Amino acid sequence: RRCLDPDEFPRDVIRLQTYYRARGWVEATVDTVVRAVPAAVRDREAVEVTFVVREGRPLRVARVVVAGVDSLRGPGGARGREGAARARLLRDFPLDSGSVFDRVALAAARDTIVGRLRNAGYPRADALVAWDTDTARMSASAQVTVIPGPFTRLGAIRVERDPAGGRAEIPEAVVRRTLGLRAGDPFRADAILDAQRALYQ
User: Looking at the predicted structure, is the pLDDT value of residue 43 above 70?
Assistant: First the structure.
């Protein structure tokens, strides 16, 4: 049903090699075998395509460091709970000593850390990722440097309305109850989105 694109076919080989290498299989090679087969439809040529992947040895993680999280506050913004905050932030971190050095998983972990921080009182949080590889030893070291920014609480919550017909139909107290936000609470990006969703509904 599909034609064999002579331009895209070589690119498929490159795509597979790129995928494997990003996942830590840096020795992976990809070869192809194209064989003519009897056509399923009269007067049409058909081919069978085989991709032969030789994975080789993977890069293994020798060391992974997550820096910049020791000063984080605990749940609710409490001080003195750094250990709990760190454990929650790094829950399910995908790389460990001896695991395959998966750059895709590392990037996803970085995004997860930033998202969790922005839902824990750090709206300006960011994180930088760096790594070194030693192909002679087939090992890699990675570091995630967390930049939490200032811990932030919600300040005054204003309700500004532009009522149709000159008067508001829904009392402000109802709007505030629907928001579920309170001044003094730690900033949470997901709470802001939940409040917006609740108002729409």
Answer: no
